[in-house]
Amino acid sequence: MSTSTAAKNRLAKETSPYLLQHDTNPVDWFPWGDEAFNEARTKNKPILLSIGYAACHWCHVMAHESFEDCAVAELMNAHFVNIKVDREERPDIDRVYMDALHVMGEQGGWPLTMFLTPDLKPFWGGTYFPPQSKFGRPSFSHVLNELARIWQTEPEKITTNTDALLDRLSAPPPASSNPDPDHELLEQMIQQVIGAVDAENGGIGRAPKFPQGPFFQLLWSVHQSHPGRGYDAPVWLTMNKISQGGIYDHLGGGIARYAVDEKWLVPHFEKMLYDNAQYITLLCKMQNLAPNELFRQRIEQSVGWLISDMQTPEGLFASSYDADSEGVEGKYYCWSESEINDLLTNSTRRLFCEIYDVSGEGNWEHTNILNRTDHPDQLPDADEALLAQARETLMAYRRNRIAPGWDDKALTDWNALTVIALLNASVTLEDAALEQTALATLEKLQTHLRADGRLHHSFRDNQVRSHATADDYALLISAHLTAYEVTLDRSWIEQAGKLMDEAIEHYLDPDDGAFSMAPKDATDLIVRDKYANDDVTPNANATMVINLWKLSAYMNKPNYQQTAEAVFEWLKPHMTRNPFACPTAWLAFTALAEQTQLVLVGEPEDENFTSLHQACLKISSPNRLIMQVSRDEELPADHPASGKTGLDEPAVFLCRNQTCNLPVTKAEDLLKSGIH
Predict the structure, then answer these.
(1) Taking Cα atoms as reference points, which of 319, 323, 357 lies closest to residue 337?
(2) 113, 144, 170: which is the final residue of a domain?
(3) How many angstroms separate the CA atoms of 18 and 86, rounded?
(4) How far apart are CA 628 and CA 630, in angstroms?
(5) Which of 15, 184, 534, 660 is 20 to 30 A distant from 298 in Cα terms?
């Protein structure tokens, strides 16, 4: 965030840390909104739209090179109405114009630099532009001058481009001639994913490598439903390599956004809330099935980092930490050998440097990124205790360094993922305090992110910003359903149902049965996008299918099941056209196909009830739901366990597709029952 005493532009009134980083630029920035649009229309100027986010390294580079340069700013101000958008605050805007860039045949990324007509139609774009021509890219000044010339002298070229682009953006996807999704196609897709995994280092493909949470969640889930087929091997490999690589923060906990190399050694050092939430959740599911010490430690450390470093004063969770500190990428996290020599005793120093790959020459740009890639195995307890003490010493020293920038805005969807992670960790670690933290966060999301009767997407400085997206609703509902399963408090189901009704009212398109990313009353978008593919977080439409199926069962509302089937019908052609892009949609397919219910009969005060409940929670496939009923409670007549709940002791019925097994009364028998 800018602390300069220079004159501030319009961005000074915003709450986004990313926008505030630009509030002293000489560029005459506008936030996205009517003031900017009216300025462009009145003066007949094209719009220069710059989209980025606070933790983005190349966004900072372009800002320093161009937006802080008075000559470049003079060009921008003379010929364009300049709008700055935080992609995390307005993901719907980002998606529209990133899609437009892809339609132009360009590779996406941030900063996203788009040029629009005054009525917001894109006609040209790119990402990072250097101050002088290099990397095969024209200089930013050349781009500005050329587009200003074309705007003035070749308006017909602009019209042709915008009309063609808008037609492509608005067009429905082509009909698929492929067969409907089935288990055979799922198997083919899984084999495709497994084939893309680096067999030595884990992860999808080569460099750069991203955690790819939705992909590995799908592999793990299908492994849980169909053990013994080897689906879990790539997940174990990848999560082990990430957990011991340089992408993992071995002092503070948590992972960076991605690694620039194939061995997960060199991270792009920004740390994002959504990555860490999904990392923790998957580790918990793996730990529930096959406990190991490494994953237990990584869960504890990463949850500890979330609470100590990412929690805001309001009890919500911040979005990210920047990659840079003092203008240098990774400076906060890297070490020289001499620093470590000064801080650790001789015996500990030798052990630490050997295990964590520290040397005089360094392992990255003459400095050291801590990692255990070459020493992943647990050492004897005494040595691990020495290493733990060394980490504490180094962490205390690191706390005195200048920290990277902290983007402390709270986003509904990312916080919902974090609630799910904390609830999973509370089960895995048997930590009641984590459960309470998660539930308190969930309540605060409903308190702080609602205004004027509607859910919003972003909160900072006691102000909400931007309408909620379908992703916010989908993941927040999922968090409420997870809260019910952990607590068995039906008020969470009731709140989830209210959220679902809001989502259906404001986001569901009755013509094609899918949820749009933005609400129906959003007036500042040229298209209201619907999408089926996963991004860095699970897809909203696919997540809604799972939510609707569960709510239909919990609330005995057949209309939810019908809506789930309609949304899935919309997903089908996307799944078959590009299976690799839709892992969460395939999770939804398995949920609808298998419809597994664990009906927990009894009262919380009953002997053995708690152990059965905990066993149900350890069965962590998203294809199952946990439903608690009292012994004297009647289930709906069409439920497969109807009439079977009058038992003398707590028990669990495993029900699939309208058929229930005999009741299980012992937790160990449930865990051995073949459902994972």
Answers:
(1) 357
(2) 170
(3) 6
(4) 7
(5) 534
Residue with tokens 């609470």: 307
Closest CA relative to residue 15, chosen from 472, 416, 408, 403? 408
451 within domain boundaries: no
> Cα 488–490–492 angle (5° rounding)?
95
315 lies in some domain: no
Residue 5, pLDDT score: 52
Q: How many Cβ atoms are within 10 Å of 349's Cβ, its own excluded? A: 17
Last residue of a domain, one of 132, 154, 170: 170
**What is the SS3 assignment for 199?**
coil
Pairing of strands 112-116, 267-268: unpaired
Residue-wise pLDDT tens digits, 643-662? 888 888 999 999 987 889 89
Averaged over 548-555, what is the pLDDT?
Answer: 96
Q: What is the pLDDT of residues 173-207, one digit of tens each?
A: 777 677 789 999 999 999 999 999 999 999 999 99
In a domain, 39, yes or no: yes
Q: How far apart are the first and last CA of the chain?
A: 47
- Phi, psi for residue 355 in degrees, rounded to 5: -75, -35
Owning domain of residue 89: 10-170
Residue 601 lies in a domain: yes
What total of structural domains would you count in the chain? 3
Q: Residue type at 208?
A: P
Phi/psi-derived region of residue 452, left when phi > 0, alpha when psi is between -120 and 50, beta in every other case: left
